[in-house]
Design brief:
Low-confidence stretches: none
Largest sheet: none
Mean pLDDT: 83
Number of helices: 3
Length: 66
């Protein structure tokens, strides 16, 4: 069970860190909150795109044809 959690940490760790940054941004000053929100956006984008890539058969730039 621990091995499975560590193996998928690439996917859930950025999402958890993003939500922690979002909550922390509510309790700090304006400049630090802005930095934390930018970090939140990057972490959530990283986590979700990694999950999409892992899902398979979702296509990518080389396999998508119009």
């Amino acid at each position: 069970m621990v091995r499975a959690a560590m193996h998928t940490a690439r996917y859930w760790l950025p999402l958890v860190a993003g939500f922690i940054c979002m909550v922390a941004a509510q309790f700090v000053g304006a400049i630090l909150a802005w930095i934390l929100m930018m970090l939140t956006f990057g972490l959530l984008l990283n986590g979700t795109t990694a999950m999409w890539e892992r899902a398979g058969s979702t296509g990518n730039l080389t396999t998508h044809r119009q």
